[in-house]
Predict the structure.
Amino acid sequence: MKVPVSWLREFVDVPDRPSDVGARLAACGFAVDGVDGDVIDFDVTANRPDCLSVYGMAREASVAFRTALRPFTDVRLDSIQAGAASPGLTLAATPKGAPPIKVSIGDPGCARYALAVADVIVAPSPDWLASRLAAAGVRPINNIVDVTNYVMLELGHPMHAFDAEKLSGPEIHIRRARPAEKIATLDGATRMLDETMLVIADRESAVAVAGVMGGAGTEVSNATTRIALESAWFWPASVRATSKKLGLKTEASIRFERGADVGAPPKALLRALALLASIGALKAPHGMTDLHPRVAVARQLTLRRPRIAGLLGQEIPDIEVTRTLEALGFALAPSADGWQVEVPSFRVDIAREADLIEEVGRHWGFDRIPASLPPLADGPPSESRPRVAATRIAALARGAGLQESVTFTFVERSAATPFVLPGDQPVAIANPLSEKMAVLRPSILPGLLDALIYNRRREAADVRLFELGSVFHAKGESTRIGWVLTGARREHWDGEGSPMDFFDALGIAELLVGAFGIPRTSISTARADHLPWFTRGRSAHVFVDGIADPVGHVGQLHAQIVSARGLDSGMVVGGEIDLALIQASPLVANLSPAAIHPIPRQPSIVRDLSILVSNSLPAADVRGTIRANAPSTLVSLREFDRYDGKGVPAGQVSLSLRLTFRHPDRTLTDEEVQQAVDSIIGALAREHQAVLRGR
């Protein structure tokens, strides 16, 4: 909204320097886009249509500068131009009688319609009027059209002038457009209307699109001698919908769709007639009508002193509250703990008590309110169990050397399909933004794989990524953590480390599951050859004691999937863990910090075993048998070698294991350890036909 300060000063005494005016109003919440000479360009928010006018900004300036606002009825038009040809009319000068044009409102989209008919003389506008319009960014046309634009800028209420002689019959109807009805608008275009659009019509056809633009057929020209001057109020939603459908945004539609003042139509009409009289364009008025079928009831709000202090954090003196609100046009009546406030019709943005408090606060000055923290009666709520788990898991993954990635929940179908089981389908999106966002991800891995490939293409050889998020399937939604790895385990001074493989992915799974307090002895694995996105023989399900379903899976991503996404070389391993499944385990008693144990004071005894077993036997089964038949003094078990070459029978493999025994209170004897080893060897022989090498 471009506001010349010279125009503003007609209604309120403000400093001569526009920059001073702009700075003060900016402190009251108005954004100033710039100052150019005498003109301030305000960026008015959509909820303040009352400030899309010079008088509306003058009202705000009167409060900001603590000076009186001159009532609009006291502004005589002859004061605008010294020595005007006619003395001018004030707002009280209402044309007598009904106009010679019949008006009817046939649709609730129009709540008020005022019309005046007058004989006029069409001519160029006087210089002061044309220059003022130009300063406000409006092109002068002729004195009739210019006056309607002038009143719109001054009062904020759009108007329109018809050539009364071009109307088909002395009638105006406000109605919905007929199906496929057409109108040639003032911009030279012919527009197709539909029955959802409100129009102004004469006896035969539409002559204006209500609240948007007039029709070319009734345009005021140099030959016009009689006008029908319209000032109305149209329902904002109706104007907004029509403007959007027609792709036509005008100064009028901008104001109507934000919510014009339902009390303004007669005021704007009288102001326009007074201006026409002042510039010598009005020959004779022929009556005026004001149809207002549904009289608006003023909104009544309660404003409480304690509520002001509670929201603003500071008590505001009563005199300041009263001064501010009354100067802004509100009517106040005292009550027990505050005021009863009547909201003026031009403040369509005021709907509740907090809105009134905002008005007080912005003119009191938010910068004057001391910064302080509000008192808290209660401490912050404790984090939910899933949130605590997610935070711990993410921290642990970062500590293990993985970098967190955030990818889209929406993925393309070709990326999602390889990560669903045969016979299943990914969850489709009804209205996808594009084909690359057509389905909801069934797994964390598709997005992580694309992120990994993105990094590899930019010369990042060793990539370790993880993500915590939701995945979607036919049965619903679940929260998982997923990870992908590629490249070397580590770089060393004597060369690159060995490439990361399945066991690195498995180690991360065990680490993350252990974050829930689940002991390593309660975690097991099983082959997962039916998962099509992993390489057969290099994948596994992860199980936790007490849960029937696998809580996750790990493996080497299938080479075809990796190459299809654009990675030509390099092995990619990864996995996923379902956090909700893990938390359902009876082993997860709480998520308190892990207990700290002192360094053992008793010595350990280590025994190494090499056994021959079937090469199809999972190592997890061997570990399970050992732990089930070992005493509690077995504190560590790990495989350190696997051999299936010369000297090992076909179909078998040599597996070497290291067993560590320790008692917390005393030193173990060789006999105790040997008894434990013998028990373990016997169990392996019975259950897996294992043969101890060297016997």
Observations:
- The chain has five domains: 2-70, 78-291, 300-368, 385-583, 605-692.
